[in-house]
Design a protein that fits this description.
By secondary structure, the protein is an all-alpha fold. It is 62% helix and 1% strand.
Length: 1289
């Protein structure tokens, strides 16, 4: 075969070439092959075809890639495609594939073979061939293809095969079937089966081929796991187990991992460990531990330490399931090998300790005393603060060790925690930020999991010399408190986080010993340029939340009393911290401490204002407002409502009446006290006892004439407070207030503002009165439903809405007893209902319709036209209520029955009447039908759906744009909701309606039509849509298809680019412990052909560094702590990481900077469909807010974007915009030189231009740069002359 891309000599002149300028023609002149193909297509077909059975057999033989057995089907028929008349010429190839035999295997155990099939794998082909042969043998002997039959047949096959490939295939199938063979069978056949497996292991242990080893080891592990407890008393069982153990240090990674996994599964998952009376540990656990210790001792201090690494990897999984004596022996061995100062060995040993403590084994495996001894021993192996990865691993191990010890015996854990806190605080001096963060996280976890759960048992810790567990807590806190010293200033952020966790865990009991720390924090907060004010405020806030404001203010006083000579107020930062963190505090403390302070500050501000010292008066007025802002926080779950609220009530009432500036704060405090503070009936009764005092004050504050000039926010706050207070007020008192409000409402002397205010109060009180008062109230507001004043009419409907929506028994009984009266009233007031009153009227109807039964169907039917028209109201709330009422009416029809389809058909017939009304009515009806289709599509029968689509298609032919817009919106909703099969029945009807639209409608709704056609093409394909539309739409359809193809291509490119970025490996600066162990466990088999790694590779992996002494001091190797100077990280070679600019780089090192339009992700959100869903009342408020944010972002982007059209040519097409020179925005308008005007420093005036890389323009660019430099020099000389002329200062 010749080389591709090359032509033979002399053939270039024979080729037909493109003429100049015609290389992009899509339809070339030469069409010889096209015409020939067209002629064959139209020519009559001959009777004799070349597609014969022999040709198919030849094709199948060419496609198959290996010999196949002659598979038979279940009924024993002849092989597929076999010629009965010519059996002698049968070849080893056939038309069956390698998976054809698997389809005959009915046992689900082997489904994995078919699911994970790889056609190019020789091993998989061998597996399929063996499975097919075994299946045929079982069927030939009349078997039922059970797991036991496959087990016996495969064991027989295993003894018969000789090739390594066949043996591996049989072992793989045995590995699958052994898991499903009944346990008694495996127990009975254990001797023969284990003997066969051990024979294979001994013969192939160190041979040239180890294909079958991993599967035989897995089979052996499954066999041992299924044995009962009695079998483990026999020596043969332990002998087999030791044979499996010997392969855990094999040189081949896959074999070694299979053996290690098998040993772990035996010790952890044997069946007898989960039955009744099961032992806590496996009988062979001690033998496995002894084997590991022996192998480590056998390896000794070898430099390569490969076997030691393999055993340590095994111990990582075995330690949690060993007995206590074995755990102690193994841990002693681990500590000894860590003395070798071998980096990988130390990392693996630490990983084994971590897995032991993280598993949290029972005390039978790891007693508390042994846990404490291991913790003490690990302090001899503390890495240096500059050794990154070992120190991180040590901190993680110690964290898990103390957490496990706290679970076993928390007093013993606390005795060891103080030392760990001291060592961990030393890690805060590390130059690595990862170490500082890890140490802080370790201390926070220990406080959260070891200290906090047991603080309640400790009681209050006094500031005197504590003893017992309290002494350990004091030592821990002192260690953390030392972190506020200046030598820890680089890690103050982490220290503050640990202090915050300490305050949260121990602040309630240990606040006497924490006061000095709070004073230190306050001093730090007052120091100039302190960088961590936010973290410090959070720490002090945690102290406020746990200790209470009184304790914190005793330690850190406010130092504000109204008699200050200077207005610095260094502790004023405490007021916002107190406001944000006070909860569950005594309300009496506010009365005794902050109320007098606020009064003093207010008096001081008044005196200063009278003395015309307005700035100082404003400062003190602001301070007293900040003090009052603490009141809502004190009202959050206060601890003394019953005893302290009576002392505060009078002051709050006076503040509401006389202090308009405090009215918002006091109202918020009352609401929070009622909603979040009153947890018991006694507390609610205590607050409700003052309702006779607070409610009149609140009523007056809301209804007085001066309130008309107040902000709506204040009036709304007062009304919300009234609603909250009514929940704790007795009904008799509410009825009395209601009568007085009705008197003022009906009094002709009151102004309109007063009447409207009284109506608001009546709306608030209506749900809380008895049935008698409701009856009189209904008689009073009934005439107001037809009042010409829109405000009064709206509030009258609001009264009815509150009554109908309330779940109190009095309101529900009133609605049931006045149901007919409500019907007549609501129908009678329909002609006079104003637009502002539609929202509460529809809400009232919504609650009334829920009470209706089948006898009220006429009334519900009469409501439908009004509700449909309200779907186009100006008010958003009215439209939402209208759609909800339409849905509720649909549910009412379903309740009316008898069948759901018939009920929905009746409802749709009522709605269809709107299609014959006015233009507005027709448009609203179509939108209503879209919402009903969204809600009740499962209740609409196919015939009703066909009728519905026909009606909508008739609306598409309307001459009114509003109606056509609604009809197109309905079709989009239908495309979204209905499946392809159901919608395909109506495709022709819809497309005929779209094709019959007038040219004016098509032009006006061209974008909507394009969007609709795009959705139709996605759902039904291009050809069906094109066939059903007239020729005038074909060009649009082609454009839509091209646009869809471009979008798909762009999406695919972006996904591909994203996947490439994700797949790009990122190498960290320092390898973690898991990565180091992964490197030790995943050797390449090609490098291990002789069973050993090269010494160079081991030296690179086991490299370590020695830290020299300080200055000229020599290193003392006799020092007992010299092991701390053996580092896994090279000291003094820390380099700053490369800064990522998020720009792609080409092969030659140039930056690839894309335009913003190319970088923006293509949003899959259909904005038009979202608008439509919002219009028919389906979209939620959350989605609307998100859409508004996206629209705001889009507007910002559009304002910055440049128009895509670029003018060119002459005449009216000439470019009219001036091309400003680079740097022109810095040029001054009047004088010479440049003006910065708040912009960046104007260092470069020449923009980056790709065309300037052209070598032919080199001379021109050199001249440009020379001119730039000359201009700069002239400017510098002129500036120097100007400076000389100026007189010296």
């Amino acid at each position: 075969m010749g080389r591709s891309g090359k032509l033979r000599s002399g053939s270039a002149s024979k080729l037909k070439r493109w003429r100049k300028g015609h290389s992009s023609d899509s339809n070339p002149e030469g069409r010889r092959y096209r015409l020939a193909a067209r002629g064959r297509l139209l020519a009559p077909r001959s009777e004799n075809s070349n597609l014969t059975v022999d040709a198919l057999k030849l094709h199948n033989e060419l496609q198959s890639s290996g010999p196949l057995p002659a598979f038979r089907d279940v009924e024993g028929a002849q092989p597929c495609m076999e010629d009965d008349t010519n059996a002698e010429t049968k070849t080893h190839r056939s038309s069956a594939t390698f998976l054809s035999g698997l389809s005959d295997c009915t046992n689900l155990t082997f489904s994995k073979v078919q699911r994970l099939w790889e056609s190019n794998s020789a091993a998989h082909k061998e597996i399929c061939a063996v499975l097919a042969a075994v299946t045929e043998v079982i069927r030939a002997q009349g078997g039922t293809e059970s797991e036991t039959e496959y087990f016996g047949a495969l064991m027989t096959t295993l003894e018969a095969v000789e090739s390594p490939e066949s043996m591996a295939a049989v072992a793989y199938l045995l590995n699958l079937v052994l898991k499903r063979v009944p346990g008694p069978v495996l127990i009975k056949k254990f001797s023969d089966t284990s003997k066969a497996f051990m024979g294979i292991l001994s013969s192939q242990a160190y041979g040239s081929s180890t294909l079958a080893l991993r599967w035989v080891l897995s089979c052996l592990a499954t066999l041992l796991r299924r044995q009962n407890l009695v079998a483990w008393n026999y020596p043969v069982t332990m002998q087999v187990f030791h044979g499996l153990l010997s392969f855990t240090v094999h040189v081949k990674p896959k074999v070694r991992k299979a053996a290690q996994h098998g040993v772990c599964s035996i010790l952890r998952g044997s069946e007898f460990l989960f039955g009744d009376g099961a032992p806590s540990l496996h009988p062979a656990a001690s033998s496995a531990a002894k084997f590991c210790v022996q192998e480590i001792e056998k390896a000794g201090g070898a430099k390569e330490a490969t076997t030691t690494l393999h055993v340590l990897t095994l111990l990582r999984d075995l330690l949690p399931c060993l007995p206590a004596s074995s755990v102690k022996l193994c841990c002693e061995t681990l500590l000894r090998v860590m003395n070798l100062s071998h980096v990988l060995v130390t990392a693996c040993a630490m990983n084994a300790f971590h897995s032991l403590f993280a598993a949290q084994p029972p005390s039978s495996s790891l007693p508390a005393e042994l846990n404490a001894q291991i913790i003490t021993a690990l302090y001899d192996y503390v890495p240096s603060v500059g050794d990154l990865q070992p120190l991180l691993a040590w901190l993680a191990v110690m964290e898990r060790a103390h957490v496990n010890l706290a679970k076993l015996q928390w007093e013993l854990c606390w005795a060891h925690l103080s030392r760990l806190f001291s060592v961990a605080m030393g890690s805060f001096l590390s130059p690595h930020t990862q170490v500082v963060s890890a140490a802080a996280q370790t201390l926070k976890v220990l406080l959260d999991e070891c200290v906090a759960p047991h603080m309640a048992e400790l009681g209050l810790v006094s500031s005197a010399t504590p003893s017992g567990p309290a002494a350990h807590v004091c030592k821990m806190f002192r260690a953390v408190e030392e972190g506020l010293m200046y030598r820890f200033h680089a890690a103050w952020a982490s220290v503050l986080q640990v202090l915050k966790a300490f305050f949260e865990s121990c602040g309630c009991q240990c606040h006497p010993i924490m006061r000095k720390c709070l004073q230190s924090l306050a001093d730090l907060r007052g120091s100039p340029h302190f960088p961590h004010t936010n973290l410090l405020d959070q720490a002090v806030g945690a102290a406020v939340a746990t200790m209470g404001p009184e304790v914190v203010l005793q330690a850190v006083p406010l130092d504000i009393d109204g008699t200050e000579e200077t207005l610095d107020f260094p502790r004023s930062w405490l007021l916002p911290v107190l406001r944000d963190h006070i909860h569950a505090a005594p309300l009496g403390f506010f009365c005794t401490y902050f109320l007098p302070l606020a009064t003093t500050l207010k008096n001081r501000a008044t005196d200063l204002a009278q003395a015309e010292r307005h700035l100082e008066a404003k400062i003190y007025d602001t301070l007293q407002c900040q003090v009052w802002n603490l009141l809502p926080s004190f009202c959050t779950q206060p601890t003394d409502i019953v005893s302290s609220f009576k002392a505060l009530a009078r002051t709050l009432g006076m503040a509401i009446s006389n202090r308009s500036d405090l009215r918002l704060i006091v109202c918020q405090a009352l609401r929070r006290l009622i909603n979040k503070g009153c947890q018991t009936d006694a507390e609610r009764a205590e607050v409700g006892r003052f309702a006779k005092n607070f409610l009149p004050i609140l009523f007056n504050a809301y209804s007085q004439q001066d309130a008309a000039t107040e902000s709506p926010v204040q009036r709304r706050s007062v009304l919300d407070t009234i609603r909250a207070y009514l929940t704790v007020t007795e009904p008799q008192m509410v009825c009395g207030f209601l009568e007085k409000a009705i008197e003022k409402l009906t009094s002709p002397e009151n102004s309109e503002f007063t009447r409207l205010s009284m109506l608001d109060l009546v709306v608030a009180m209506a749900p809380y009165v008895d049935e008698k008062s409701l009856h009189s109230l209904y008689g009073i507001i009934q005439p107001s439903l037809q009042n010409k004043d829109h405000g009064i009419q709206k509030k009258a409907y609001r009264v009815l809405e509150e009554i109908c929506a309330s779940d109190r028994p009095a309101c529900q009984n009133f609605v049931q007893s006045h149901l007919k009266d409500l019907q007549s009233t609501l129908l009678g007031s329909l002609p006079s209902a104003s637009s502002p009153a539609k929202r509460p009227r529809l809400k009232c109807l919504l609650h009334v319709v829920k009470q209706f039964t089948a006898e009220h169907e006429d009334f519900v039917t009469a409501l439908v036209p009004e509700v449909i028209l309200c779907t186009k109201e100006v008010s958003v709330g009215a439209r939402k209520n209208a759609y909800n009422l339409l849905v509720e009416i649909g549910h009412a029809f379903l309740r009316f029955g008898p069948a759901a389809d018939d009920a929905m058909q009746r409802y749709l017939l009522v709605v269809y009447a709107g299609l014959t009304g006015s233009v507005t009515m027709m448009s609203c009806t179509v939108l209503a039908l879209a919402r009903l289709l969204f809600e009740f599509k499962e209740h609409i029968s196919p015939a009703a759906l066909e009728q519905l689509v026909q009606h909508i298609c008739l609306m598409i032919g309307s001459r009114t744009r509003d109606v056509v817009k609604s009809a197109l919106g309905f079709l989009k909703v239908a495309l979204l909701l209905l499946d392809v099969e159901l919608l395909g029945r109506h495709l022709q009807t819809m497309l005929e309606a779209i094709g019959g639209m007038s040219d004016d409608m098509r032009r006006h709704f061209r974008m909507k039509l394009r969007n609709l056609l795009s959705k139709l093409i996605r759902k039904f394909g291009f050809d069906p849509v094109r066939a059903l539309l007239p020729d005038s739409y074909h060009k649009v359809l082609l454009n839509v298809r091209k646009a869809e193809a471009r979008n798909r291509k762009r999406q695919a490119l972006k996904r591909a680019a994203g996947s490439v970025e994700e797949d790009r490996p990122v190498r960290s600066k320092g390898e973690s412990m898991e990565e180091v162990l992964a490197d030790s466990d995943s050797e390449d088999e090609s490098k291990q052909h002789d069973g050993k790694e090269t010494k160079k590779a081991l030296r690179q992996r086991a490299q370590a560094w020695l830290k020299e002494g300080e200055g000229d001091e020599p290193l003392n190797f006799l020092d007992p702590h010299v092991a701390h100077r053996v580092l896994a990280t090279k000291p003094g070679t820390g380099k700053a990481g490369k800064v990522s600019h998020d720009f792609k780089v080409s092969a030659d090192g140039r930056l690839i900077i894309c335009e913003e339009e190319e970088e923006e992700e293509i949003k899959g959100v259909d904005e038009e469909m979202a608008d439509l869903m919002q219009e028919v009342g389906i979209r939620s408020k959350k989605a609307q807010k998100r859409r508004f944010r996206e629209e705001a972002d889009d507007k910002d982007q559009d304002s910055d974007a440049q128009p895509q059209y670029k003018a060119g040519g002459s005449g009216i097409h000439r470019p009219v915009g001036k091309n400003t020179a680079p740097g022109a925005e810095y040029k001054g308008k009047k004088g010479k030189g440049d003006i910065k005007k708040g912009r960046l420093d104007p260092y470069a005036y020449i923009p980056l231009n790709r065309a300037k890389l052209n070598r032919r323009k080199k001379a021109k660019l050199q001249g440009q740069y020379k001119g730039l430099m000359k201009g700069a020099q002239r400017g510098a000389q002129a500036g120097k002359r100007q400076r000389k002329k100026q007189p010296p200062l």
